[in-house]
Amino acid sequence: MKLLKTASLSIVALALASTVASADTLENVKKSGTLSCGVSTGIAGFSATDSSGQWKGLDVDMCKAVASAVFGDASKVKYVPLTAKERFTALQSGEIDMLARSTTWTNTRDTSLGLNFAGVNYYDGQGFLVNKNIGVNSALELDGATVCIQAGTTTELNLTDYFKANKLTYKPITYDTSGQTIEGFKSGRCDVVTSDASQLYGLVLKVKDPTSVKVLPEIISKEPLGPVVRQGDDVWFNIVKWSHIAMLNAEEMGVTQGNIDSMKSSANPNVQRLIGESGEAGKNLGLDAKWAYNIIKNVGNYGESFERNVGKGSPLKIDRGLNKLWNQGGLQYGAPIR
After folding, report:
1. 254: which DSSP letter?
2. Residue 251 lies in a domain
3. Number of helices and strands (H, E) in the chain?
4. CA distance linking residue 225 with residue 132, whole number of Å
5. How far apart are CA 125 and CA 123, in angstroms?
6. What is the rounded CA–CA span in Å between residue 155 and residue 128?
7. E strands, 43-177, where?
8. Which side of the chain, N or C, has fewer Cβ within a 10 Å radius?
């Protein structure tokens, strides 16, 4: 009886997963009038609330871009704060329509969870934050260290691999959120905080004296971060994917939030197709011809989003680095809209 009950529950779970995966997400989003977007519980520069309670960040702009493509209105987003451990279940169950939460694209996540990564909106890598007074200048000097780490993230495995490969030992202290890791660090529970380097820049701002800490030079992993959707709905997958690509192409073509209206008279056929003055990109996506125009008008191009959220125009002041466009020495490359 117990075996039958377990088998029945498994069949029900598989049926539910199949129903969610095959659902018409675009139509459901349109019917609800709001895009439900999974974000972090607070990662500076990526998804966090400001002093007035408004969500801001690079990932938040990804949510706004998709809402703009679908509704023509960036405000039609319901932000759902999720811990690292909660995020995939929320997407699999249909609680959210997409996930934009500093999530690393890995083989396991892409092939075993029923999910699809729709691109990379930030190329990152794992690093280490330490107090200057412990006299450590390299991650190779961290033998025996106590390390604060966020549970349910790729950083746990990366940390294990790095220390094992370099014959070092460590004691992990795990927390549910990024904010809790820095509080553990500040209280002296650990010698080191490890996370994506982009998050470490944000954590530095939470230390009473930011000049008393430093990020070590080693980057020990590849962390391509990007939006995630459920498998089984290619229409929705295409919309999220091409929303990001539109922002990249806009930057490459010099189309900005401020000049997009004047670009309607551009002689460049690529610009004309991007902003919906010609071509059928919108129709092919199941959207209005102005889908990309609305993204750029409401949110801006990728470079604008990067600079105000995590770049030199933000408190984090992160260099573009790998996140420069391909023709500027970076990895960001938008497939052509044609």
Report:
1. T
2. yes
3. 13, 14
4. 29
5. 7
6. 11
7. 48-49, 55-56, 77-81, 98-99, 115-117, 122-124, 126-131, 145-150, 170-175
8. N
Judging by beta carbons within 10 Å of its beta carbon (0-12, 13-18, 19+), is residue 244 exposed, middle or buried?
buried
Question: Which tokens is 219 given?
Answer: 């980057």
Pair 16, 67 in one domain: yes
Nearest to 110 by CA among 94, 124, 99: 99
The CATH number of residue 109's host domain is: 3.40.190.10
Query: Per the domain annotation, does 102 fall within a domain?
Result: yes
Sequential pLDDT tens for the chain (338 residues): 333 333 333 333 344 444 454 569 999 999 999 999 999 999 999 999 999 999 999 999 999 999 999 999 999 999 999 999 999 999 999 999 999 999 999 999 999 999 999 999 999 999 999 999 999 999 999 999 999 999 888 999 999 999 999 999 999 999 999 889 999 999 999 999 999 999 999 999 999 999 999 999 999 999 999 999 999 999 999 999 999 999 999 999 999 999 999 999 999 999 999 999 999 999 999 999 999 999 999 999 999 999 999 999 999 999 999 999 999 999 999 999 99
Please give the sequence-ordered ranges of beta strands (E in DSSP) within 76-190, or none if there are none. 77-81, 98-99, 115-117, 122-124, 126-131, 145-150, 170-175
Handedness of CA 315, 321, 326, 328 (dihedral sign): positive
Same domain, 312 and 253: yes
Q: What is the CA radius of gyration of the chain?
A: 21
Q: Which residue range forms the structural domain that includes residue 44?
A: 2-123+225-328
Residue 204 and residue 231 in one domain: no
**Integer angstrom CA distances of residue 98 from 13, 57, 65, 83:** 21, 16, 12, 15
In a domain, 268, yes or no: yes
Strand (E) or helix (H) holding 223? strand 223-225
Examine the domain organization and report whether 230 and 277 are in the same domain: yes
Two tokens, residue 242? 């091409």
Torsion angle in degrees (nearest 10) through CA of 270, 272, 277, 278: -40
Residue whose pair of structure tokens reads 């990007």 in the numeric block = 226
